[in-house]
Each structure stands twice: as structure tokens, then as C-alpha cells.
């Protein structure tokens, strides 16, 4: 009876209602203060000009190359100057007209005196997977055959785009930063704003990328400051309080890894004499445990500067995999209304209160421990980036198995 009387008592409900109203009021205050304090992207805040090595890989990107990417790259190298830029592109096995469009870029780079290396590889996915399996990068899959792993293949292509670094270094030509560019729509202002992230002090800094706004695209490579996957694909994205608070302020967001369309990295680790930083996949024996990790996560794990200089996402730099996506996120469609702010803030809260990634992480760490315990020589430092997947290359792209 006493319990029934307490349940009928309106005061607990009133207290809860008052707390919710007060919480929403504070959210409204935060919304208006953030709109007043958040800066807009501007090249004026960027770091001074530096020597930039531009690296990119492409596969079936004809339309975006022709309509946006080539011209944006040309504007970029003209801004920094032919003596302070180098463009390295590795295109692999496209069946659209990407090769011809990149040949046009090659001609224009040559005409303005910009150093470049554009490789047009004729080997398609079908050609690559038809080759006899080698000792590394291939695994036996549940489909009862030996197949080529996607991540080591992508790592190889990214490393090929970095090959000119060494030959240029032998000639005494070095660069301050490496700019990795996906097949995205971007502007000089985006590049300069990204370059100036955290006043130019970082191991790496990434944009945010969008294909179907307002959802960001590269969920595979983005991990917050505590190593969690994004809790939601829309703003404010993160589970970690540190990362979430920064993105709400429009400040550089501390993360443990990112890629997301456009990335600046300090060049120093890539020139190391003993162990030059390069892309890689996890060992094949670990992948057999139905585990995988993005090469774009592992590069930050392996980078010795990540711990001292930090990895950041710049939430003011938003690139798109189409002009529509870019315009949407950089125009009025990319701005949060008060209603959207409140709705997404509460969605993030409810997800944090009601979900956990502990079980996924526990499964992954158990498999990793079993793999590691079977041999003293087995080491994988990127355990925080492992996920419960197996990815292989197929003729028209890649597949989960």
C-alpha cells in the first residue's frame, strides 16, 4: 500500500518534468551561444604556405574527376606554386573513362610546371583476383576458396601513391605535409582551413565527408578520442565526451583515427630511415579469425606522432562525394536549426544511455587474445580498431564474407 501511494504521488513526476524542462532550457542556451561563437571556415585562419605532397588513388571516378576534382587540384597547385607541390595519382583498373580524364590532368600539370606522377594501371579487379595467390594478402574464406583481402590490396595502392616521396628525397626534395585526397568535391578554402587546424599543430587532421547528407560517410575509419565508433551518423556523431564537446563548439575534434575524404599528415614519419610510415593491413592469420581493420586507422596507430601531436577532425571542413552533397553541407542545409540541435542532442544522449559497444569490443579482444596466445611472435598493436568483419576483393568492388 505504501508503494502504491508513492506511485500515485505526483511530486516525483513533477520533479522529473522540471529537470527535463531545465535540461532543454540549458540546451537552448548552449545552441544560441554556439551559433554566436562558432567561426566559419576561412582560409584566412590557415597556417602559412608549406610544401605539399598530394597523394590520391582512384577507381571508376570519371564524373567527379571531370566535373570537380581535376580543376580543384589545378587551382590548389597554382595557389601553392609549382615549386612547392607534387601530385601523385595511382589509378587502378577503372572501366569508365577515368584514365582519359587523368591524362588531361597530367597534360595540364605539365603545362604549368608542376611535378607529378600519374600511374594508369590497366589491371582490373578481375585481373588481380585471377592471379595465383601469393603468401600474403590472401586467405581461405567461408566460401571455401582462397581470396584476396581488400585492405592489404588498398594499402598497396596507397603506398604506390607514396613511392615518389623516396625518389624525390634522394634528389634533396622534401615536403612539409602530405595531403591525401579521396574522390571528393573540395575547394582551396577547404584545404587551407584543414591545413590550419589547431594552428597547424597535429600528426594528422581530417575533414568530414558526406555522400547522403546529413549522414557522414566513412564510418569505418573514424574513431573518437576513446576509440569508439561514431554513435550516430549525424551531428554530434560521437560517444566520447571530449570529442562530442569539441564538435559542438566547432573546435578541432580530438580523435584516435579518421580519414573522411581529405587528410593532412605531417611528412616526417614517412621519411624515417629505419621504419618509414606506410599503410598496412592486419596479419592474414589474424584476419582468419574473422577480424579486419581499416588501413586508415592503422596508419594513425603506427604513426609515432599521433601520441605527441594528436589526430583531429576539423568539423568546419565538409567535403562531398557529389556536388549536391557538398553544397548541402556547406549551405543552409548544413546548418542546424534549434529543433535539429535539440533532437540530435537528445538522440545522442539516449543512445549513450541505452547502448554500449562493450560486447562488440569484448568479442574482438577475445579473438585477438586467442590469436596472440598461439605464438609469441604474433603482435598487432591496432587491436582497438579491429572489427568483426572479413572483406575480400571481387570483380565489381569488394564484399563481406
Give the overall pLDDT as a whole number: 91
Q: Which range does the strand content fall in?
A: 15-25%
Structural class, judged by helices and strands?
alpha/beta
The backbone outline, from C-alpha atoms, is: globular
Radius of gyration: 23 Å
How far apart the termini lie comes to: 58 Å
CATH architecture: Alpha-Beta Complex
Helix content: 40-55%
Q: Tell me how many strands there are.
A: 14
CATH class call: Alpha Beta
Q: So, the CATH homologous superfamily?
A: Spore Coat Polysaccharide Biosynthesis Protein SpsA, Chain A
What about the largest sheet? Answer: 10 strands, mixed
Count of the separate structural domains: 1
Order of helices and strands: HHEHEHEHEEHHEHEEEHEEHHHEHHHEE
Specify the number of helices: 15
Report low-confidence residues grouped into runs of 5 or more. Answer: 35-40
Assign the CATH topology.
Answer: Spore Coat Polysaccharide Biosynthesis Protein SpsA, Chain A
Protein name: Polysaccharide export protein
Pfam family, one: CAP59_mtransfer
Short description:
The chain is built from 15 helices and 14 strands. It is of the alpha/beta class.
How would you describe the overall organization of this protein?
It holds the Pfam family CAP59_mtransfer. InterPro entries: Mannosyltransferase_CMT1. This is Polysaccharide export protein. With 401 residues, the chain is of the alpha/beta class. It has a single domain, classed as Alpha-Beta Complex (Spore Coat Polysaccharide Biosynthesis Protein SpsA, Chain A). The chain has 15 helices and 14 strands. Strands 1, 2, 3, 6, 7, 8, 9, 10, 11 and 12 form a ten-stranded mixed sheet that branches. A two-stranded antiparallel ribbon has the order 4-5. Strands 13-14 form a two-stranded antiparallel sheet. Helix 2 packs across helix 14 and helix 3 (62-80) runs parallel beside helix 4. The radius of gyration is 23 Å and the shape is globular.
